[in-house]
């Protein structure tokens, strides 16, 4: 996926209350961003998400089942929320919202986007002949 594939987060960015949506690698490299998210802003968000995911996975490993499996991370802050969840191929999806949102709808659209990413990044099976 490249920046030319920003369309992946376009539907998610239209959810009421969503201000920014990005896809990045787990080590903080930007892969896609919503139209209203500037490149510098998206790069900073990707770097933050990388650090937050690392901390959250350590937390899940120690106090969860030990598998470091992380479903979703939500940070509430003055002025809104940050949602981060794993996506396909060592990637994550991050959404920044305003303060008034339908969290269930944001989570639902994030799930739909993750499924779309999985289809986009999946390697097709090789033919038998």
From TrEMBL:
Domain Roadblock/LAMTOR2: 6-97
Protein name per Swiss-Prot or TrEMBL: Roadblock/LC7 domain-containing protein
UniProt organism field: Actinomadura sediminis
